[in-house]
């Protein structure tokens, strides 16, 4: 697959069968209303397929299917080793269908198919495998009571878990939620983003093929204000894992208060700082990674390193390196292995990014990119863009743009760098570049974020929790810690004759 040409990918894309129906109780079904919406390829503007437009009635059916499955124990009370076997099989099926999964995300939201084939789709298989392997290795507690009392403290599944996910990593965001929630024994109702529902639907089909019982994983494509809201307000959803914007994360907290006090786990926006100190010896690697940190996935990454703080003595030399890298990362057809960046997810997001860029042209110093372009005369593409000498209070330095736009801000002291980095409503991630160990530890200690990457960007693994502080939300995906979102502590106290 990694030696496929542009034409190879195009041929395979044309041969794909796209399924846009909802997946409820183990079957593909139309929305109750019969309504559909179009799934669009942002690289061409072409309609990929019609997708079921789910609403309250469909969410009700999906939650009821999940509840029936949970209550009769077909998954929730299956032996841990058997659940493990099903999810391991699912990981294998994702690997066996890697090319298709990669194409679905690339066509639906514009990411490079080579990234989808090397990062997103293998990542999904890996995370299912990782949680599958964990299932029969987690032990519960016996509390230290006296003789005559046996107090068991167990983590038990909650019931029906809702998941509402964004479009930037469609398959992986669905996986981060579903793999952990299913491993813990729950039923899941997933509402993928309306821009990119296709891979989640195929994932649910593969899960049933792997042996997941009907009704345990349901996918209800549709819009946020209807299907997403219905899931948030549902009286029979026990926990809701959300990844998306901070504004919608706040709405989910309200939905909970207005309905059944379901647990809400928001993982929301970011404006992550990247701090480059003059005592970083390998500035070429730092520049390579700073470019990856903002331009990977067209900058549509919640933890994108969108604020670059550079020590003033090296700032001009460092920015020159970055400009060269940006110029070498021009967007192209996402199906072309030679392209360095793909398409922006849709017209609305593209226009939003361009509004920030146009405002930046009069308030900061544009040094690379800055234009919307087409590829083959079509599509939503934005050049990798760098603004230098951005003032700390410029919206370029404060607001999440969620596109390939980097703001460079010079600093004179460690104190000033840390203060500016922390002066944000967000706290998802940060990077620090220095070869001074004490400085690395000192700065990492003081950064108020969920993940600090030292001498790298966006460090992430199945083994480590991912999530934010402040208005980046408080949910954690990945690692065994994410199982806490999908389980409750349950005490069973037994009296016996000592
Ligand atoms: P979004 O908040 O617009 O949408 C996310 C999901 O919420 C979608 O499924 C959408 O349909 C749904 N939704 C929208 N309005 C809703 C409503 N009124 N009620 C219920 N559901 C609703 O975000 P987006 O544009 O899809 O994604 C980009 C955002 O996601 C960025 O802010 C990014 O930082 C964030 N993100 C965060 C993480 C993380 O782990 N912290 C990861 C990826 C993306
Ligand atoms: Mn789309």
Automatic annotation (TrEMBL):
Keywords: Oxidoreductase
InterPro entries (alphabetical): Ald_DH/histidinol_DH, Ald_DH_C, Ald_DH_CS_CYS, Ald_DH_N, Aldehyde_DH_dom
Domain of life: Bacteria
Every Aldehyde dehydrogenase domain range: 29-491
TM ranges: none
UniProt xrefs under PANTHER family: ALDEHYDE DEHYDROGENASE-RELATED
Protein name per the record: Aldehyde dehydrogenase
